[in-house]
Amino acid sequence: MRDDLAALFENGRNGDETAYRRALDFAARRIRVYVSSGFRIYGYHNEDVEDVVQETLLTIHLKRQTWDASRPIEPWLKAIARNKLVDHLRRKGYRKFVPLDDVAEILAEPQPGPDEGLGAQNDLLTHLKERDRKIVEAVSIEGYSAREAGERLGMSEGAVRVALHRALKSLAAIYRGS
Description:
CATH topology of the largest domain: Rna Polymerase Sigma Factor, Chain: A
CATH superfamily of the largest domain: RNA polymerase sigma factor, region 2, helix turn helix motif
Structural class: mainly alpha
CATH class of the largest domain: Mainly Alpha
Strand content: under 5%
Radius of gyration: 25 Å
Distance between the termini: 45 Å
Number of strands: 0
Number of domains: 2
Order of helices and strands: HHHHHHHHH
Helix content: over 70%
């Protein structure tokens, strides 16, 4: 069925009006189900489903050339529908409130210090060569970009990316082995 939708949509983009109309009709049914369940998930009634479906269809029509035909169409449609649903909920002023009593225990828990909880992480890093450890620490832990880490370590951005990839792959293998 999904392949049919993609084929109809592609034919419609190429000028077949009948195929495009059928694609939009089929998409509307799928979007209506998705948006309706979205309203339920967020705890709201379905009175505005058709508004969101129409906004979504309009956006699909206006952005139809942005769909990459080599990729599945359904995730593209759902992403547009989800964004329109969230936009609609924001516009209407819908907000989810969580009573403080529901999260008081979580908020009261002591937060780990800067070095707490890093024991296993630091143990894994000791298995890496010094340069690789410094790269992982700079990018993955300290939050530097590959360019910034390269400047700090005297390496090119590309070399940092390659070394980081290899180091993380090594860490994964070490972790799986332990």
